[in-house]
Design goal:
Length: 144
């Protein structure tokens, strides 16, 4: 399970899928992974949002706040959430990143080759690499 997968392969035709706007009656977040063959999959599937109620847009904002090292209280205020909820997400993100580093000594959050080539063996390295994700997070935040 990824924090937020950035790539998805269609289970039907094995083509690369893309995140697109989708019907809110079928996908509460208004987004889904969509393939040219017509296959659709929730953006929550195989992410830390699976089985959570937080809207996708809100979580992307929390992720952006975390990567910017924003205080959880400020992030909570910005996203109209309880500070405890934001702290829980910060902990989940941090633990997920630690687990991926300890598993194979590399950070594999986004499946980008340039991140895989960077060896991260400490939490400090992990935070530096996560900061490299800021442009992608800005893309997600602007897209949402």
């Amino acid at each position: 399970m990824k924090i937020i997968p950035t790539r998805r392969t269609c289970p039907i035709c094995s083509s690369e899928m893309a995140i697109k706007s989708c019907s809110t009656t079928q996908y509460s977040d208004g987004f889904c992974w969509r393939c040219t063959c017509g296959c659709k999959i929730s953006v929550r599937e195989h992410s830390i949002l699976e089985n959570k109620q937080t809207p996708f847009r809100t979580f992307v904002g929390i992720l952006y706040c975390y990567s910017s090292r924003m205080n959880p209280a400020i992030a909570a205020q910005q996203h109209h959430l309880d500070e405890r909820t934001v702290k829980q997400y910060y902990t989940i993100i941090r633990e997920k990143m630690k687990g991926e580093i300890s598993a194979d000594k590399t950070l594999d959050i986004t499946e980008h080759a340039w991140l895989k080539q960077k060896g991260a063996t400490t939490v400090s390295d992990m935070n530096k690499l996560f900061s490299m994700l800021l442009p992608e997070l800005l893309y997600y935040r602007n897209w949402c």
